[in-house]
Amino acid sequence: MRLGPGHTHFLYIYLFNILFSPVKPALVNVTVDDSGQDPVTNRTITYGPGWHPGQNCSNCSITTFGSFDPGKTYQRSWYEASYLQIGLPQFATFTFYAGDIKMMGSPSLGSAIYVFGILARNDGPWLARNLDLQFYIDGRLMTTFKLNLDFLNKKKTTFKQPLPAQHTYNVSFFGLNDLTNGEHSLMMVNGEVRGNNTLALFDYLVYSYDPENMTGIGAPALISQKVVPQSMGTIVGGAIGGALALILLFASVFVCIRRRQRV
């Protein structure tokens, strides 16, 4: 079959778009343990009064009955905070860098942050607990996470659902995406003034960023290979190899088309 000039022109444009289309970058996820460091910036989570490392707390609520399994938590650690309607709510803060990805001709791909924790099981009215968490980004309240297990409280509440019959691990307490490029602060608050008794069990958080935008934030010059699994040499070599393969394909198709046109 002989290709007409119109078909040949369309094929050239198609191959050119494949060859010179930009490679879509990808965001990198970073996991920060409750008691660990950010592997990219070496920053840690700052806890206010009332927060305690659960694995080292013999009289904390969750470890009293011996039904808690540390092996189901991330890095076998967690932080606990109990608010008993006395004093101020408990605060925990973390500063992270959100680097969005901007593609030519398309909207930017924003970064995200997620907070995970544990729901304590229903151990009866002698361990009546609620979960009442508020999440702030850059000082602005974004959302709340509330559950109710206060058998002694008969008044109406705005809590969504009862706590489970068994401990539930790896529960998503908070999630937010489309964060703008730059530094952000996350603040997690357990309890409300004159609110119900609350028990918070925080395990870890995950945020995403663009490695190419990590500038001017005091991050280490070398990023852990656990965070960025591919070296720059591998990425560049793969890109060059792929480009050469497409050039050879383009040349082969061009030769075939020219031969068919001469027949």
Automatic annotation (TrEMBL):
**What's in the keyword line of the UniProt record?**
Membrane, Signal, Transmembrane, Transmembrane helix
Signal sequence span per UniProt?
Answer: 1-25
Parts of the chain that traverse the membrane? 235-257
Q: What is this protein called?
A: Uncharacterized protein
Q: Where does this protein come from, organism-wise? A: Macrolepiota fuliginosa MF-IS2
